[in-house]
Design brief:
GO terms for molecular function: ATP binding. With 289 residues, the protein is an alpha/beta fold. It has ten helices and ten strands. The protein binds adenosine-5'-triphosphate.
């Protein structure tokens, strides 16, 4: 099969005409989007819209019924790799890391141990070199430690370095999961509902971390999120979905103003405008999805 071309060097991931059918349910219906390098791109939509399914297509947990996903080849090579031809275990090595809606960490290991395990996808040393702890292995170990310490500092986890994950508050575990994903030095970070289970203050912190990850580490973020406050704060572009299909793509403000988006969240546009008039007779502000 010929290698897909990348017509636009700004594009890191390109999904084209993706559809997935589970029996009678068309979970994703002909969805196309590009994620540009260095942006935070967010999928929003009501429950069952197909957001997590799109994530699972990129992680290769699911295979699309039709359509393709291409990813910019790592290491400055030209062209794109067809992600939909790759096996799930190859995804992390290509530079894609993810967090989950329900945190997935080793509960009975320390924060540091979890992060070092996260770093494992980067190990390039062979079995014999690891058994005999050769110079190459030692160098890899030092590099892993340095990277992990950098991430601990970035996400302010110093106080929790030696803590068992099981004993940590939920909000901290959520940051540890983020840290573990960063330790793989991804090009693309997939965040599945980063604010779920967090209180208002922790959600504000999460917005801060996501912005730092983008600005300081230059990592591209593709996120699924329900909290429109967080979405508006951190997203460069948003794709709104409903019933598997794309409703609108644009800046957070553009998408929240889109009549199709308002209708999908709240009912008909007329219902929404009369509701707004009743509740805020003097208000002229834009709709919020
Ligand atoms: N493995 C599966 N088998 C059968 N149906 C599935 C499967 N995964 C998802 N679906 C269905 O596909 C549709 C889209 O689900 P999906 O989880 O992607 O939505 P979502 O937008 O992520 O929703 P939520 O915000 O509630 O997480 C739903 O109707 C769901 O029931």
């Amino acid at each position: 099969m010929s290698q897909p071309q990348n017509p636009n060097a700004d594009v890191l991931l390109s999904a084209q005409n993706l559809s997935v059918r589970f029996g009678g349910v068309l979970a994703v219906n002909n969805v196309s989007f590009d994620v540009k390098r260095g942006e935070v791109f967010t999928l929003i939509g009501p429950n069952g819209a197909g957001k997590t399914t799109v994530f699972n297509l990129i992680s290769r947990i699911y295979t699309p019924t039709s359509g393709t996903i291409d990813f910019a080849a790592p290491g400055g090579q030209s062209g794109m790799l067809r992600l939909t031809d790759k096996a799930p275990h190859e995804i992390a090595k290509l530079g894609i890391a993810r967090t989950f809606q329900n945190i997935e960490l080793f509960e009975h290991a320390t924060v540091l141990q979890n992060l070092l395990i996260g770093r494992h996808t980067h190990r390039r040393t062979g079995l014999w070199s690891e058994i005999f702890f050769t110079g190459k292995t030692r160098a890899a170990e030092i590099e892993a430690r340095e990277k992990v310490e950098q991430v601990i500092e970035l996400l302010d986890l110093q106080h929790h370095r030696e803590s068992m994950v099981a004993g940590l508050p939920y909000g901290v575990r959520k940051v540890v999961e983020l840290a573990r994903a960063l330790c793989t030095e991804p090009q693309l970070l997939l965040l599945d509902e980063p604010s779920s289970g967090l209180n208002v203050e922790e959600t504000d912190d999460m917005a801060f971390w996501i912005t730092d990850i983008k600005d300081e580490l230059g990592i591209t973020v593709l996120m699924v999120e329900h909290d429109m406050g967080l979405v508006s704060k951190v997203s460069d572009r948003v794709l709104a979905m409903s019933m598997g299909a794309e409703l609108a793509t644009g800046t957070p403000a553009e998408v929240q103003r889109d009549p199709g988006v308002i209708e999908a969240y709240l009912g008909s546009v007329d219902d929404v405008s009369s509701l707004r008039r009743e509740n805020h007779p003097k208000s002229h502000t834009g709709a919020s999805a």
